[in-house]
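HUMAN: Mind sharing a backbone?

ASSISTANT:
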Amino acid sequence: MVEVHAEPLQSGSGHAWFDGILEGPRGEDDRALQQVVDQLNGLGAVEFQLDFDGASFSLLADDSPCPRSRLSEARRDQLVRGLEKLLASIPPEGEVESTLRCTEIVGDDVQETLFGVIGRELQVVARSRPLREGDRQRIAATYQDEQTTSSLPFDRRYVPLIGGVVIVLTALLLWQGGFVDRLLGASAEELQGGTGPFADMLTLEIESSWGDYRVRVRRGPGYPATPDAVQQRLDRSATTAERAAANLIAGGDEVYLRLEDDNDKTLVARAVSLRKLLSRTDATVEAELPGRIGAERIVIALDDGTD
C-alpha cells in the first residue's frame, strides 16, 4: 500500500461522508467477497453495497453524511486493511478501478482521501481543499441544525500542499491511468450542459468531485407526468428523436450521459435509468463521469455515441 497525506485535519467534531465505487472482476466464490464486505460494514465507519453484474462486481459506498467521530483512527486502519483484503481476494485477471473517497470537514477545513487502486495495490492519497457551497448544502440536507450549518463559511482559499506531497502525488498520477485526466480536465463550472432531444423535460446539474463529474438529472418544467401529457408531447414532436425521448421518459427507461469534446466526440458515456422520476416529483438520478482532458460538455442522449 502507498499512502500520501495532506496536512492533517485538526482534532474535533465535524462531518464526514464517503462517495464513489470500486469495480473489478468477479471470482468463483461470491460468498468470500461478501464476507469481506460484511466485515467492512461491521466496522461502523461506512455501509458498502456489493452488487454483481455478469463477470464483474461493484462496491458502492453509502454517501450519507455522518459525524466525523465515527472515523476513529482504529476504524480507519481497519477500513484500509479490509479494502486490502478485498483486493487480495479478487482474481488476478482483469482491471480494478476505484473512485472510493472520504470527505471530512472540521471547522473551516476539508480533507478528501482517495482510495485508488493500481493493479491490486491500494493507493491512499489525501488532499486539502476549501469548503464549498455544495458541502454546505449536503450537510444541511442531513443535519437541520441551523447553528451548525451557519457557522460554515462560503469561501476559503485553497490550502497548498507541501512540496514533497506534490512530488509523490505526481508520481502516482503517472502510474494510474485516468489520474492525469482527472487532474488536468476541465472543472464542472467550465463544462456546458445540454439535454438534447429531452429539451425541458429534464434538467442537468454538474458538480466537480475529485476530478470526476457528479451529474444529477431531475424532472424539468416540461416533464410529462401524466399519460395525456406524454401524448401531447408526442403529438408536437418535430423529429423522431424528440418522439423517442418522450417515450423513454414515459417508460422510465435508460438514457445516456455523454462527456464530449469540442468536436462532439464522446469521451465517456454512462447509462442511467429514469425510473425513479416516474413516481416522485423530487427524485434525482445521479451518476459519475471521470474527468477527461479536452472535455467541453455533458449531454443527455438517446445512445452512447459510439459508432
Q: What stands out?
A: Residues 107 and 151 are 8 Å apart (CA to CA). The two ends are 40 Å apart (CA to CA).
